[in-house]
Amino acid sequence: MPIFEGEIQVRKIRKRGGAGGIIFSSITLEPTPRRFVIKASYKVTRSPKLFKEFHIWKVKGEISQQVIEWKDGTKHTEQVIIPETLDFVKAAHENLKKLLSESPSFKGISEIKAEKLISFFGDELISIALNGNIERLLPIVGENVAKRLIIGLQEYEELATLQLLDKLGVPPRIGDSILKIWGIDAYQQITKNPYFLTAFEADLNLIDAFALDRLKRKPTDPDRLAAYAKSILFNAFKGGNTCINTSKWRYQLKRLLGNAEQTEKAIQHSIAQGEVVILNDMVQVKSMNIIESGIVDFTNQLINRTYPKPTQQKSQYYIKKYESIAGFPLTYEQKNAVKLCLAHGLTILTGGAGCGKTTVLEAICFTLENLKLTSQIILMALAGKAAQRITETTGRDAMTIAGFLHNVNVDNLPDDVVIIIDEASMVDVLSLYQVLRKLPKKGRLILTGDQEQLPPVGIGLTLHTLVNLSIPHSHLSENKRQSESSGIPLISTEMRLWSEQSSSIAFSNYKDKGIGVSFIDSNKTDLQTNVLKTYQELGGDGSDNEVLILSPVRHANGGTQNLNALIHDNFIRGKRLTFEHEEFGWVNHSLLGRAVRTGELVLYKRNDYQRDLRNGSIGKVIDKDEFSDGIIVNFSGNIVTLTSSDLNDLEHAYAMTVHKAQGSQFTRVIVVVREGRNLDRHLLYTAVTRAIEQVVFIGDKADFYNALSRSNSLKRLTLLKYLFKSKTD
């Protein structure tokens, strides 16, 4: 068979192997180009992620032929190369293209125009700009744009880093983060130790390709071995763990490196360099140890600090005054909770959903302010929807933790500020640590939430751990939110206290729209059909969230994506919204392949303070914007125009994951029950307590009861409890 050896350009990726290997079409760079399909095994391609369209590679391998048949019966013969070697040559200037098409400094250069500039000039484009050779650019762009291009690149401080990123083939999604965080130091960081890139990309095969193949580092490089040692600990973060057992760490590292000697060197180097910390037969990366130790230090300071205490008489006076204004008396539990928060620097307030925590928060704020114990109270939550809910229920402004961290200057906080974090079960260790770092020395922190609700999406356990430590803690048990007649308080309490000795739950019979908690048995085949049928029977028509579907998963059968598509296809009949694309003409705005229509319910997935939108904000699509490529959405009275690119931050809002719904409440809730690693007592309990009047579970009852016996959040491995006890004993 003939052998080809030369440079090829990737044209279309056909398939990436899960454990390595790749298939793609390509074209040679010869005067008379030839087309080949490259079929590379996992032995040749460590990381399929490396391969991008228009990248150039050098290939050597035998040429063979294969006949493929299209769906219409047409047959086609392809030239195939199975490479002996496949070496990276250069990338396609993707980071440069992203800079030119997205940075305000290069206004007037669209993505298509940036592509044309790079295709035409290639490696010369940057030198043309640095030399100010405007005449070379004029055949492609106008004079004003050419001037902006030249000035922009000449003034861009991170240009050397940008060139390095493109030389290595670092994808723009990673390159963008590197430039934002490291800035002008990025070039030095990457060349000094390319394994620092694991802070932005967890795939060590990909980092190895940058370091070993392109920067010519050795496999025995201590920085590489330490990176592998830490990668196991970083990988534990995916399960919410802040640490792992040392024996498990050693075992997994040996499997990764495949060599006992290198494993020991990796462990010794990572410990000697202070990259990892071993405590209580557990190991964690140094940065996580700093975070958990910091939380312990800050909480101990708050617990041990002396605060001015009002007299019992004054406290009673203002509590009674609050009751008079509110128009109802506080319970004994609620009064004690208020008094506890007045007396301490750190207080935890817990209770089941609807037990009156919001009322206590209002009373705490009222009493603290009237007793002159604080100059400012800041209410916040992790999720945007939860923060919005606080504002709605208390009448006080609330913000997300991210908004507080990014927008509030610590120098502007009064010494006696009180920070209240609601839905604290959702708060991960990093978020809590960052808030504590900003808290002034005389400030107070109040954490409110329910430790039986879901653990954080992020890393670690905060509220779930802190409630079991020696920290001032008040628990509310009387339910105030759901009507007792609905049965939700009784059922949720049974679920909250479920144990192996529990027998079964007395569900009410399902009779369409009504009150109570019901269960509809369904096999997996009919699951989505039954959800759709029940949604309609409960009055759901896609026009509002009076009926909401909750699922433990996003993908697969019974996941939010499928269910949102199902509701969209069956109920949404508004007009399709289109916009004119400069290359493809008139096209539909779309979400998950579905045309966006007027009347759509959509959920915004990030915090956007300029538009007054939060992660979890729900809106309704009104119309397209006549003056742009955008759509107009009404987010509870906040009318916002979203561009076509903003649609990446939207999803349909007929079905949500339980995590997304946390912090909100809805009249009727349908809960999908399907076996999976996410399904446990905390998820089901959180789901049932989202409803005010009616809950309908749909799925397999065996899966339901099995889940009630599981507590995935309590299985997370952390050192917070150990560190707290070791520093207080």
Low-confidence stretches: none
Describe the main β-sheet briefly: 6 strands, parallel
**Helix run count:** 27
CATH superfamily of the domain at 499-708: P-loop containing nucleotide triphosphate hydrolases
Give me the count of strands.
28
The CATH topology of the domain at 499-708 is Rossmann fold
Q: Cα distance, first to last residue? A: 75 Å
Mean pLDDT: 90
Strand order of the largest sheet: 11-10-12-13-9-14
Strand content: 15-25%
CATH class bucket of the domain at 499-708: Alpha Beta
Given the helix and strand composition, which structural class is it? Answer: alpha/beta
What would CATH call the architecture of the domain at 499-708?
Answer: 3-Layer(aba) Sandwich
Specify Rg, calculated over alpha carbons.
29 Å
- The percent range for helix content is 25-40%
How would you describe the shape?
globular
Description:
The protein is an alpha/beta fold and 729 residues long. Among the domains are: 88 residues, OB fold (Dihydrolipoamide Acetyltransferase, E2P) (Beta Barrel), CATH 2.40.50.140; 179 residues, 3-Layer(aba) Sandwich (Rossmann fold); 210 residues, 3-Layer(aba) Sandwich (Rossmann fold), CATH 3.40.50. It has 27 helices and 28 strands. It has a 6-stranded parallel sheet with strand order 11-10-12-13-9-14. Strands 1-2-3-5-4 form a 5-stranded mixed barrel. Strand 19 and strand 20 form a beta hairpin. The model has no long low-confidence stretch (mean pLDDT 90). Keywords: ATP-binding, Nucleotide-binding.
Characteristic terms for this protein:
single chain, 729 residues, alpha/beta, OB fold (Dihydrolipoamide Acetyltransferase, E2P), Rossmann fold, six-stranded parallel β-sheet, five-stranded mixed β-barrel, 38% helix
